[in-house]
Design goal:
Length: 215
Amino acid sequence: MDYRKLHETSTVDLLSHVYKNYRPRKKISSTSNIYEVERLIWKREKRERFIEQTEYLVKWTGYSKYESTWESSDEISPECIRLFEKPEPEQLQILEAVDSLRAAVESRLKSNSRLPLTIDFPTHIFKYLFEGKGAVIRGWLYLEEADFNRRLFKKSWDVCLDSFGEGHKISYPIRLRSFLSWSPKKFVRQTNGQLQLCSRAYQERLSFSFARSPC
């Protein structure tokens, strides 16, 4: 996918008063209040004054994760929301994320630990690969062998043997959870002596665990 086109179409139309406390984002043009969005990262439901409101965490083009903000769905273009719900990541991004997951699975197959393993993993890649598959139980997605695309997860990706032909394989289902973690909460002291909460950076993460069996 051409992400330059995404930047041109995935925008948030913001009322000027909403951002009176923020420095200006990069505008699509100098004559509008439409700003470039790199990607919508996460979605949450928020209740305020008995009104349910959907908000998205926006990663702004040209700005760090520390400057990402939660915005109401009313302020976000339909195209941007569509790409959040049905991502169209570039092939290289997909391959890099899958490589990371496969390497982590191989490491876990060689380990005796039963604890979940956590890695960095883009939330939109997780959605692209696994949305609509498996079963969600208590916040975890349980996947069977057939839920993994064989074009990306090659034969025997879930097996790890040593030079003697001994090792382990995944005993399905494998459970996964995509989530955000945050940089530590901290404060700065203002000139008037009062403490102000600093912005925090998100980190897109994936935890997984599975039982293994000898092979």
